[in-house]
Structures are given as C-alpha cells and as structure tokens.
Amino acid sequence: MTKQAGEPQWRTSSYTERQDCVELAALDADSIGIRDSKNPAGPRLSVTRADLRDLVSRVKAGQLDRC
C-alpha cells in the first residue's frame, strides 16, 4: 500500500518490540489519532493533545489500574 499525500504518519513507541500495539498520529495542530496496529484499517480514536497528556499522566500514576 502506498502512502497518500496528507495521510497521517502513524508511529509506535520506541519501546515496542512487536507489531501488536497502539499507534499514534498527529491529525492536526490539536488532535491525535489512536489506532490498533493489528487492524490499521479499523476504528480510530481522535483526542486532543491535552486529553492524551492527561490520559498518559493518569496511567503512569496508576490511577487507572484495576484492583
């Protein structure tokens, strides 16, 4: 598949060793796209940069861990 002009540049974490992970892409100045690398044509989420920062902070702090 050839990348189309204007198509988001999807990337994974540098810590990823496998291909089954979450990918992120800048969609515009304030929006980040999130998708599953195993299903790149599947559903995608779009969140603001601020919401993504908040989510990552909460994950790192353990606030979303299940008991």
Q: How many separate domains?
A: 1
Widest sheet: strand ordering: 1-2-3
**Order of H and E elements:** EEEH
Strands, total number? 3
Q: What is the CA-atom radius of gyration, in angstroms? A: 13 Å
Fraction of residues in H or I helices: 10-25%
Mean pLDDT: 88
For the biggest sheet, the summary is: 3 strands, antiparallel
Question: Which stretches of 5+ consecutive residues score pLDDT under 50?
Answer: none
Please work out how many helical segments DSSP would assign: 1
Gap from first CA to last CA: 43 Å
Principal-axes shape call: globular
Bin the strand percentage: 15-25%
Structural class: alpha+beta
Tell me the layout of helices and strands.
Blueprint: E1 22-26, E2 31-36, E3 44-48, H1 49-60
Antiparallel strand pairs: 1-2, 2-3
Question: What do you see in this structure?
Answer:
The chain has one helix and three strands, in the order βββα. The protein is of the alpha+beta class. The chain has one domain. A three-stranded antiparallel beta sheet has the order 1-2-3. A hairpin with a 4-residue loop joins strand 1 and strand 2. The termini are far apart. InterPro entries: DUF397. It comes from Actinomadura violacea. This is DUF397 domain-containing protein. Pfam families: DUF397.
